[in-house]
Amino acid sequence: MDQRKDATAATIEAHGRLAASLPAETGEDMANATKGFIGTIEGADIPGAWSLKPFEFLNGERPDTVNPSLWRQARINLQHGLFEVTKGIYQVRGFDLSNITFIEGETGYIVIDPLISAQPAAAALKLMREHRGNKPVTAVIYTHSHVDHYGGVRGVISQEEIDAGLPIVAPEGFLREAVSENVLAGNAMGRRATYMYGSLLPRDAKGHVDAGLGKAVSLGSVSLVPNSISIQETGEKIVLDGVEIVFQVTPDTEAPAEMNFHFPQFRALCMAENCTCQLHNLYTPRGAQVRDARAWSHYIDEAERMFAGESDVLFASHHWPRWGTGEARRFLKQQRDLYKYIHDQTLRLANHGLTPVEIAEQIELPPSLAAEWHTRGYYGTLNHNAKAVYQRYLGWFDGNPANLHKLPPEDAGARYVEVAGGAAALLEKARAAYGRGEYRWVAELVNHLVFAEPDNAEARALQADALEQMGYQAESGPWRAFYLTGAQELRNPRPKSETPRQGAAGQLRALPADALLESLAVRLNGAKAGGSGDIGFTVAFEDSGERFAVSVEHAVLHHRALAKGEAAGPVVSLTRPALIGLVIGETTLEAAQSDGKVAGEGAVELGRLLPLLDRFDFWFEIVAP
Known about the structure:
The protein is α/β, with parallel strands linked by helices. The chain folds into three domains: 28-370, Metallo-beta-lactamase domain (Metallo-beta-lactamase, Chain A, 4-Layer Sandwich); 409-491, Alkyl sulfatase, dimerisation domain (Serine Threonine Protein Phosphatase 5, Tetratricopeptide repeat); 505-612, Nonspecific Lipid-transfer Protein, Chain A (2-Layer Sandwich). The chain contains 23 helices and 18 strands. The strands form three sheets. The chain has an eight-stranded mixed sheet with strand order 1-2-3-4-5-6-7-8, with helices on one face. It has a six-stranded mixed sheet with strand order 9-10-11-12-13-14. Strands 17-16-15-18 form a four-stranded mixed sheet.
């Protein structure tokens, strides 16, 4: 039975108030999103990886369970297929969360950002070839280090082409950042991403409708092929397949390693993910390092000065292009000022002594920015981006000593329930608040009861109802997904498993040896290791020829590279896959030794280390203890 509820009168009223405050609808965004359409696959249906058919309900009237502004963005993001950006430049949009762009060179296609997974990327290339000719891929460009811009690369190039030296271009530091962001905190980040992108929600009017940045994330095969060319300086020029490209490096903007670039012969500017048709994240709710709003604004300003006057079209790795030099300049300046405004006003209010929560409640865009659709919080929000600026400069602590050493949720929850007069009394007060449409307060209040009594069915149900209405009201796709996923998991608790799914295993398999050993340090259980004594041995990786000294001292795991033939303690020989199998429990040390996958005297020390390494459960609880 579907436990989901309809929108309440308070939610419908909130939608009405928001609708009255939205910018004027000119139809320009939908016109831009459909301009240059050439062809598509019905429903963008790519077996096993992607389909927009479940989202066809967006072609109907807006239901009361969806924010009117998010509904508008969701309908525009539903457009899919091959589009001409300008002569010689084409995009496939709506085949994944991101766009894939094709530049026609002298002999083939330069591919920009080959999506998240191989199947959608291959389908996009096939569509391009059907309409523009069966030409080879002659180069690949990664705009930045997020997986939706490189993960599908093996859908557009083969191993033979990689081995033959096909150029793959990326900003300096791309590989390091691509590996690091999703590894050390990869399990937590991956689990939270299921909330942020609505991965577990039904695709319907009471579930997932849009991610703001795009429709959803594809589910195909993800890979990482290192770049062969690194762009290190702004103004650097290269020629790929007869096409000149001028680069602008933009570190610490939307990604730690990112770049914009200009095509002089096409008079076209690619803004990567630094300018999209929305307010982006300064802090992403799935978890990541806070981004630098000041640097972000600076690099947009630099791009406007360097390239806008020589551009007739501006396109990006998400959403739809903008045409005309004047429109490009206007858009860039507004996006520039959007991030600078949030940065400056957050710090102004912080210097007045306001806390991050107080700032987030107070900050509003000036009328000139609020009048634009592309400044709205479909992905990032003013609220959590202001908190991100505060965090970047002042950290998590708001200065109030009462918040310096707060009780953990279960302990605090039990005490709040006691103060409220018990569970029944707390629920009575919360139900009254729910009837008044005070859903934020209900969620805060009942959260204490859920953490004090996680098996309290009435508390879980009321908390789910409150989060659901907050999801229906949310303009941000990720906020809606977080609220609705929380409601779903409260109503349908995941049964405990004796063999939980291993988290972060996929990331481990992609790591080079040095990064693999670094990742083991965050798996070392300090409480166990503190009583185990020192450990020391040498790891010799047979597949890469690398050697590392590995040690545990004071419950801390260290490693350092060794020269060929050098040893620091007894040596254990194995491959990276063999070590990964041992770490995540796919095999035992005894079995690996018996199979000849592990050898050497150092296996004794490795055997002391392995029981000290935690195995992460991907399905850890979020909305309950």
